[in-house]
Amino acid sequence: MRLFLTFEGGEGSGKTTQIHLLAEALKKRGFPCLLTREPGGTEIGAEIRRILLDGKNHRLSPLSELMLYAADRAQHIEETIAPALAENRIVLCDRFTDATVAYQGFGRHLDLKLITELNQLATGGLKPNRTFLLDLPVEIGLARATARLERQKSSEGRFEAEALAFHEKVRQGYLRLAREEPERFRVFDATMEIEALHGKILEEIESLGIKKP
Ligand code: TMP
Q1: Count of alpha carbons within 13 Å of 167, Cβ hemisphere only?
Q2: Which CATH number do you get for residue 75?
Q3: Which one of 34, 99, 164, 206 is most buried, counting C-beta atoms within 10 A?
Q4: Is the distance from the beta carbon of residue 103 to the nearest atom of ligand 1 less than 6 Å?
């Protein structure tokens, strides 16, 4: 089944946990699917991801940051996403174009029209069939994300180091995108228990024609 599903949300929203649970559930139902992410869904993308997320790179300029996300995406579409969709697989992607609008557009105040054009260029116009937005208060998400970075001794803390006000703008940006495209977006309360949220996402997936085994 050819289906392109994306997961979005602020830091610590639990989207990575949910996307893995969904991939497992789909495989159990016999649907071949590909689980991938941005940035870093390809080998070249992994190198771009390191530059983008390394907490040491606080000198990266907003425009340079935007271009690197676009470069990661162009590579990802061509090398991974488009071929998987051409094989009629379900593609589950942890962040996609909406993240650029929310973070670089609403968060960094880069020109929204430029971002739309770059997204169009990088994706060739490919749009997700559904986008699951996991929404939660930024203080809760950041506390979760920071604890995880410490636990994993990860150096990927460049965005977590941004002020609460930045993350609030990102959150409001995502919610605005969801209001603008209600047929594509499904917004969930990410403070919900993991299993309960997984159940809600499965219900939505079933409405797309993926039935219980
Ligand atoms: P994640 O793996 O936790 O989702 O981290 C990726 C980070 O990159 C996250 O802080 C959001 C940020 N990001 C952008 O700023 N713009 C983008 O286009 C994408 C895909 C991610």
Answers
A1: 22
A2: 3.40.50.300
A3: 99
A4: yes
Task: Choose one of 114, 132, 159 to mutate for the ligand 1 pocket test, by most ligand atoms within 8 angstroms of C-beta.
Answer: 159
Domain count within the chain:
1
Q: Sign of torsion, CA 137 138 144 147? A: negative
pLDDT digits (tens, 9 = 90+) for 11-54: 999 999 999 999 999 999 999 899 999 999 999 999 999 999 99
Residue 213 domain-assigned (yes or no):
no
Whole-model pTM: value is 0.97
Ligand 1 atom 4, closest CA? 95
Could you tell me the residue range of the domain that residue 32 belongs to? 3-207
User: With a 6 A CB cut-off, is 38 part of the ligand 1 pocket?
Assistant: yes
**Would residue 212 count as lying in a domain?**
no
Kindly state if the Cβ of 106 falls inside 6 Å of ligand 1: no
